[in-house]
Amino acid sequence: MSERAGREEEPATRPSTFVSREGLPGVRAREEVNELLRAHDPEVAEENLARLTDEHSPLLRQIARERDVSARDPHLRRNAITALGRVVSVENLNVLAELAALDDDELIRASALTVLAGTGLRLAVPLLADAQESRSPVEAAAGAKGLAALADRLGTDAVEAALRPGQRQPGPAETSGGETEADPSR
């Protein structure tokens, strides 16, 4: 019998070195944003969302678009969407509109619709009106509630004016085709 057979060999080890995250600012920034978005206590979550600024927008947009994040931590993506609505910019609104119209997850679409309605901007009206026609009850409810919230905030006339012609509901003096009835005084 050989000498080796009597002893167990130790596995080979690879030398490693400690890597400081301070040298990786992108990783550290992502960890900080993730930590702010993961708060479960409503008061802490509200405080954390208030701490997010335009500086955080690129990371928030990235998180909001990451579909695989929903499987691991569904609140993270929805909270990023909420934060985008608080830091209103063209880029953030474009991401919210994209998510509201095109995302595969109905809960994400509904979250984006709700946040868009919360911005109080008339540009959300066509998206909300389209969502009312969705087969998804969650998305349809978000569209209807969003339009109602905007009507309360901006006024019904402003919301109706922002609707596309095909989306407008006929008023009492209009026919079903959207044309006004002939004036009997002519």
TrEMBL record:
Region entry Disordered: which residue ranges?
1-26, 161-186
| Residue stretches of biased makeup (Basic and acidic residues) | 1-12
Q: Which InterPro entries match?
A: ARM-like, ARM-type_fold
Please identify the protein, giving its name as recorded. Answer: HEAT repeat domain-containing protein
Q: What is the lineage of its organism?
A: Bacteria, Bacillati, Actinomycetota, Actinomycetes, Streptosporangiales
